[in-house]
Amino acid sequence: MNPDPATLPPPQGEGFVLRPWRRDDLDSLLVHADDAQVSRALSDRFPYPYTRADGERFLEGQVIDLEHPVFAIEVDGRAVGGIGAHPGRGERGHGAEFGYWLGQRLWGAGLMTRVVAAFAPWAMQRLQLYRLCAMVLDDNPASARVLLKNGFEEEGVQRCAVYKHGHVHDLRVFAKARRSLQDAT
User: Fold this and answer.
1) pLDDT (tens digit, 9 = 90+) per residue, 66-84?
2) Distance from first CA to last CA of the chain, Å, rounded?
């Protein structure tokens, strides 16, 4: 018998735990989020500099809806990044957009590839999605590689979609889709 998708616990993986954000994550959040290199590829709701007030607003659910699956990436007992999905509404309720970030100190070791490998199928099953997509800035090839390694297909480019730090950027669109909720994720 298959488990009820609504009761699936957050996924885990080699070298990390995904769990809800907690108030006591504030100091670790500040250490990893207050980094221009982290912020450069994320939406402006993830500012730089990243202040204590920014972290408090995030942990209080004022920046994004923490009722959606939004998790801290925990390594060695500390929050070092985040991943979350935002389900669509109405006729787009069968899909979700997701995003992720990781503190620069942990880049280059395959951690985010493993996190996405655990999170994407979990989110598709838990939220009963036919489609899970992510947008990647044109100057972030590492994030594109994470998605491609996890079976996402590049669907196209939204040209001149983002103006950030004085530059216009294209957004690359990646998605994983299935025609039936019984299909593998």
Assistant:
1) 989 999 999 999 999 999 9
2) 18
Mean pLDDT of 6-31: 93
Q: Which two tokens stand for residue 98?
A: 């997701």
φ, ψ of residue 164 in degrees (nearest 5):
-140, 130
Q: Are 41 and 140 in contact (CB under 8 A)?
A: yes
Sign of CA pseudo-dihedral 179, 93, 176, 115: negative
Give the H or E element holding residue 93.
none
Structure confidence by residue, pLDDT tens digits, 19-35: 999 999 999 999 999 99
Only one residue has tokens 């079976």, namely: 151
List the structure tokens of 127.
């939220």
Which DSSP string do the residues of 122-138 spell out, in sequence order? HHHHHTT-SEEEEEEET
DSSP for residue 110: S
